[in-house]
Task: structure prediction
Amino acid sequence: MTAPHTSTPTVFDVQRIRADFPLLARSVHGKPLVYLDNANTSQKPVSVIEAVNTHYREHNANVSRAVHQLGEEATAAYEGSRDKLARFINATSRNEVILTSGTTQAINLVAYSYALPRLKPGDAILTTVMEHHANIVPWQLVAARSGATVKAAPIDERGELIVEKYIEMLTPEVKLACVTHVSNVLGTVNPVREIARECKKRGIALLVDGSQAVPHRPVDVQALGCDFYAITGHKMLGPTGTGALWAKREHLESMPPFFGGGEMIREVRFSGTTFAAPPHKFEAGTPNIAGFVGLAAAIEYYQSMGFEAIHAWEQNLLAYATERLREIPGLRIFGEAKEKEPVISFLLEGAQATDMATLLDLQGIAVRSGHHCAHPLMQFYGVPATLRASLAFYNTREEIDAFIVALLKVRKLLM
Ligand code: PLP
Result:
């Protein structure tokens, strides 16, 4: 990855790219929309919208249940999405990719199907202070059932994980270690390879929450060396209700199913049911077929752009936005890690985050305010909430300028 720089890349035609995202052209409260809430959910290109539309218009049927033409087309499209996802994250096999409704379902699957059967009183699960609730609460639920505990590795003021502490906390009672690849609040990129190496040395499986990484950087699960990697589709240009869990085959083979029902069985008898092989063993019921057709189109979109270009543009925007925000008196930025993805959390002295977000919205600026599903992180910084501007490759410097102008107006109103 290249270091952040402030010169404008010349080969990146952002206006052409923006034309692919119809929603970016709308206005809000009579002002041009400036969408800076991409870590919450990204906007969708026409190719994704059209793929979903075409699926319903021309190919709609259930998967794996019908031998008729439409059933075959729907199944091929759904399974094709699994193939694309497997290649996107460099899984060794498509059978290691479980299609889920998002990261939350993916992590819960690991919690109930991998962790719970292995946990006994006195065991522990290690996570970190900077996690989204999706990488905390499932562990608390299974810990409560099994008599295990949840430990959280600390971070420093800059918002970086204290990696030596994390490693020190990988004690023999830890049965599973967890970490986010990129923080949804701070933008911090965690050193997953190093953590994975240390976990492996100790025979501890590692789960990585990749929700905020896959929209910004190429992910290679084999190179990372983790055991589980969870992603959510709607933050990476895809439809809501899509996502995936990648897991090493040996884990999937040892894990019992989490949901029971149609699609996941080999044979059902009242004397006992046998299950399909992974990945279908974990995919009970009718999935979000059209959603995954859209997700396949989202992956194609990323591939057509290439992460090198995306990364250069986004890092440039991040550096510019950070620089502009730092000029505002009384503005505090949360998260100043050396390696960041384009997420900036901040507060203005004397102003409530929600009031500011509401006033910014009136000027067409969409940012998120609140705890960002990261209560422990808010507790660490001693604040109830922050504002968060999160960028995507379709954002522009002009939008950041508009955001700063609006912010200065809001500051005047509230001071
Ligand atoms: N993990 C992180 C880091 C996130 O940012 C989010 C969403 O905000 C999630 C998990 C949960 O994703 P989903 O709600 O799509 O399952």
Q: What stands out?
A: Residues 95 and 278 are 6 Å apart (CA to CA). The first strand starts at residue 27 and ends at 28. Confidence is low (pLDDT under 50) at residues 1-9.
